Amino acid sequence: MPIRVIALFRRRPDITHEQFSEHWGTKHAEILASLDVVKRNIIRYTQFHILPQETSALADAGYPIAQYDGMAELIADNLDDFREMTTDEGYIKTSTPDADKFIDKTSVTFLVVESHVKHERAT
């Protein structure tokens, strides 16, 4: 069963949410998707962008809110494939310096999970 590596992170404090989301969703996504090691080792890369208005509505209703600006999910056949990506020379030379432009590196937290779907709405 494939593994899912989840990365949670905050934006750099010197950029706006809009700047963060725009850069991550376009330039960074293009860089990552263009790398041979990603094409070879990553089954799917998904970005989850925070919705500020909906997040505020939940906070106003008393729900505790995680203090992150985004979440990325990378699906790979195994942990070695993911680790090969992060140690690849092309990744280190392109993706890592680009991430420094918008991610607060001190905030990055990882989970390694497998999914267990327990409900799916009938269509």
Would you write up a description of this structure?
With 123 residues, the chain is of the alpha+beta class. The protein has five helices and four strands; from the N terminus they run βααβαβααβ. The chain has a four-stranded antiparallel beta sheet. Helix 1 (17-34) packs antiparallel against helix 5 (89-99). The longest helix has 18 residues, at 17-34. The radius of gyration is 16 Å and the shape is globular. 15% of the residues are buried. The mean pLDDT is 97.
Topology readout:
Layout: E1 3-11, H1 17-34, H2 36-41, E2 42-49, H3 52-60, E3 70-76, H4 79-87, H5 89-99, E4 103-113
Antiparallel strand pairs: 1-3, 1-4, 2-3
Helix pairs in contact: 1-5
Give a brief rundown of this model.
The chain has helices spanning 17-34, 36-41, 52-60, 79-87, 89-99, and strands spanning 3-11, 42-49, 70-76, 103-113.
